[in-house]
Amino acid sequence: MIARRQLLRGAAAFACSAAAHPFLTTVTLAGSDGGNPLGDHRLVVIILRGAMDGLDVVLPKGDADFARLRPTLNRPDALDLDGFFAMNAGLGGLMPLWQAGQLGFVQAVATPYRDKRSHFSGQDQLEAGTGMDVPLTQVRDGWLNRMLQAVPGLRAETAYAVGREELRVLAGAAPVHEWAPETLLELSPQAALLLEQVYHDDPLFLAAASEAIELGAPEMMEDMAGAGGLKGVKLDDVDKLVRFAAGRLREETRIAAFSLSGWDTHKSQARGMGRALMRLERAILQLQQGLGADVWGKTTVLAMTEFGRTAAENGSGGTDHGTGGAMLVAGGAVRGGRVFGDWPGLAEAALYQRRDLMPTSDVRAWAAHAMQGMYGFDRAVLEGAVFPGLQMGGNPGLIL
Amino acid sequence: MPLTPELAAIRFGYGLPVAEGSPRTAAAMITFLAGPDEMAAAWPIAGMEVLGPLLRDNAEARRIAGKDPSQRHLYEVIEAKLAAIAEAGARATLARALDARDALRERLVTFWADHFTVVAPAPRDAARPAAMIEDAIRPNLTGPFAEMLIAVSLHPAMLIYLDQAQSIGPNSPQGQRQGRGLNENFAREVMELHTLGAGAPYSQDDVRQLAEALTGLTYDPKRGVKYDTRRAEPGAETVLGTTYEGESPETVRRVLSDLAARPETAAHLARKLAVHFVSDSPDPALVSALEAAWRQGKGALLPVYEVLLTHRAATGRTLAKARQPWDYLVAALRALGVRGADVMVWPEKKLREVVWTPMRSMGQFWRRPRGPDGWREEAAAWITPQALAARIDWAMNQPQRLARPLPDPADLARRALGDLVPEVVIWAATRAEKRSDGVGIVFASAEFNRR
Q1: Subunit contact B396:A187, Cβ cutoff 8 A
Q2: Cα–Cα dist A117/A309, whole Å
Q3: What pairs with residue A258 in β-bridges?
Q4: Are B217 and B159 in contact, with CB atoms under 8 Å apart?
């Protein structure tokens, strides 16, 4: 412990270089408290990798074509939301949030990505936040990072990319911290002390090592080793991820992103979807708990996926890569208790290419409205720099 | 001050100790580079000669399975073979780096492979980038640069990655019939990344004209790379003031050669070489000297490398660069005495645990940089808390699995850093409470992580 503190003190002189980003004209943000340029609001972005089947999360039970398209995925146990849509029972633990107006969904959303239905490209498009007019190989940063670039005077602690998975959504010129909470840097006090000496004359290594040793220390890990293993589903990695994120968000961090995978349900979806839903449910509940009522009250969680899945089940009780999907929004800052988005219907002629749910809104528009509602960004910044070429449309009232 | 053998190994190779028979002076290193490619012969990697027929058969098998799903096994067998070739290629690349007497050659191959980045994540495509290195980069390593540029630009891996295979002249017979058009992606990256550089004075119109001049150049697995006049945009194109007439592969070569010969290209590559090998903010005198050598030799690369090895600003003792994770792991394995023949027989799991997974934790996903601009150069991009934690963790825990008994930490420090070893590293390595911590401190030290 002593070694670690010494190392930290040694590093203090080199930490916290708040880089200025000349990329954009600066904007004045609503709610700045002087300490943090982004004010009190927290934004958590969860990338759901593998193409979540929106029709199996928020089931359009009231649509006349639904039962026909989904013979084994009709889910009699789904929980009614508003008389038309029902929520998959796998998210049942979130019902109290729905009732409290802290959980909502957007149906029939998509990025501008169309037709090729590739996970890799679809996720790249989602995280880049650009339109189809720019080849993805030319996009060097993600939309969440471009939002940060629009805020002067940010420190790296403002945003955390959490987990081992690369998060392109946060990649770019604005300073961002990255940490995978499963990183365990177990050093004896003596080894830590000796490393401090070895790094003494190299500020870059000294600063990085001091932070690594602080964050990776086993004692921090112990209080994260939570209960897991409900019904045989591994949850302790989700717990670690989320508790780490919550810990940071309670302090100086305002933006966090991580990803949850396991949504690529090509077969036996009736069972296969359960694991992914349980992990998503767990992530949101842990976040709520970890943040505490005050911070949760100022938080928006956006969970988004690269695209939806086919409207009809395939021959093996699953669904294939599609287009329009669903997005989950949660947190005390959102006006939940409703399913947003225009419902296009599931009649064959209403489907995209007669196969997929027709997208009626752009995922990016919802993210843009969330950013505007919480941080007060100008529409010009959101439509020009963060999501170039986006038309946000009218304010859907997503944020309280 | 001339290049010392220690600096030659650390800055321009994969570290100390060097393989037996390695060149010790700049002049000898150049002689080796001009000689035969020993490692390509020792540890072969598949080029298109091997991949081409498999890719063709695979396309055919996928076509058949598209009509009749019961035939899926046809392509599954081929794709398993393609994935195995990619794995073997990665392994052989490691073996070459460990064994090479002219480690500079392997470092230069890595540099050019990054300069001409192609990414192919799907297992069935993953052997293509290595094939491009074998077919287009290694044979052209000593120049002229135009030859390398042309070879890379005509390689399937590049034509697919930057969408050239999808670009069709809108007024060509095929463009008219299919209503399809230009894809500017490749043309833009040729100018921005491969030749002139982002700051050079070229316009969107030049990009478009180049894209039109490149139409006709395409690839499909069945017929391979070819120039298809039915896809070529008719009429002359003007790129950077020079007009190109005629729809032929000759036009493609000419326009690429002219781009290679531009002074902006010389300046861009001179700076990039200095940044990669010497310093994130290189001495302008070094950059000018490299640029002058490039222009004088009309893009011949050997004389440029010679300047890189002998310029006073490139031979100083300050280790300004951070080793990228790949360099770091190769250097550590070399220092522990691991040889190419060892890694060639390691089980896949061990290779993954010792090399590929830690490398990814250190921020470098093997052959998967984020975009065509390749890996970052700045030390600060690599020495982050997360990535340094992965390096320290590797340093403390992996060596005991690879070298038994572990070397004496102070000896290791002297052997791996030569006369560049700081007293404090020896001091700390000898005071660790166990030998593996002492070894860990050497491999975690800033000096071992820099070059």
Answers
A1: yes
A2: 9
A3: A46
A4: yes
Closest residue of B to A208, CA-based?
Answer: B385
Are B35 and B134 in the same domain?
Answer: yes
For residue range A134-160, what is the model confidence (pLDDT) as tens digits?
Answer: 888 788 899 999 999 999 888 888 999
Average confidence score pLDDT of chain A: 86
Both B188 and B134 in a single domain?
no
Q: Exposure pattern of B303-319 as b/e (b: 16+ CB <10 Å)?
A: bbbbbbbbbeebbbeeb
For residues B428 and B344, state if they share a domain: yes
Distances (CA, A) of A340 to A126, A288, A363, A366, A370: 19, 22, 12, 10, 13
Beta bridge partner(s), residue A303 = A46, A328
Would you say residue B252 lies in a domain? Answer: yes
Tokens of A47: 């990338």
Nearest to B110 by CA among B87, B93, B123: B93
How high is the pLDDT of residue A35? 65
Same domain, B428 and B393: yes
Q: Which residue has the tokens 């064959």?
A: A348
Whether B287 maps to a domain, the answer reads: no
DSSP for B23-35? --SHHHHHHHHHS
Spatial separation of the C-alpha atoms in residues B264 and A293, rounded to whole Å: 58
Q: Are A382 and A368 in contact (CB under 8 A)?
A: yes
In a domain, B91, yes or no: yes
CA atoms within 13 A of residue B94's CA, in its CB half-sphere? 30
Domain holding B420, by residue range, is 325-363+383-444
Q: CA angle at residue A239 from A234 to A241, to 5 degrees?
A: 110
Token pair listed for B87: 């794995």
Amino acid at B277: F
The HSE-up count of residue A249 (CA atoms within 13 Å, CB side) is: 33
Same domain? B192 vs B84: no
Structure tokens at A261: 């995978």
Task: Provide residues of A within 8 Å CB-CB of chain B.
Answer: 120, 135-140, 164, 166, 168, 171, 177-180, 183-185, 187-188, 190-191, 194-195, 197-202, 204-205, 208-209, 211-213, 215-216
Quick check: bond before B405 cis, omega within 30?
yes
CA B427 to chain centre: 37
Chain B's closest residue to A168, CA to CA, is B370
Among the listed residues A196, A5, A202, A7, the one whose alpha carbon sits nearest the alpha carbon of residue B427: A196
Asked if B449 and B416 touch (Cβ cutoff 8 Å), the reply is no
Tokens standing for residue A369:
């409205």
Asked whether residue B336 is assigned to any structural domain, the reply reads yes
Residue A265 tokens read as: 């349900």
Same domain, B62 and B121: yes
Amino acid at B56: R
For residue A319, count CB atoms less than 10 angstroms from its CB and return exposed for 0-12, middle for 13-18, buried for 19 or more.
buried
Domains and CATH numbers, chain A: 27-182+230-386 (3.40.720)
Question: What ipTM describes this predicted complex?
Answer: 0.93
DSSP A35: S
Q: Is residue B120 located within the same domain as residue B190?
A: no
Residue-level length of chain B: 451
pLDDT in tens, B78-130: 999 999 999 999 999 999 999 999 999 999 999 999 999 999 988 899 999 99
Q: Test A212 with B392 for CB contact under 8 angstroms.
A: yes
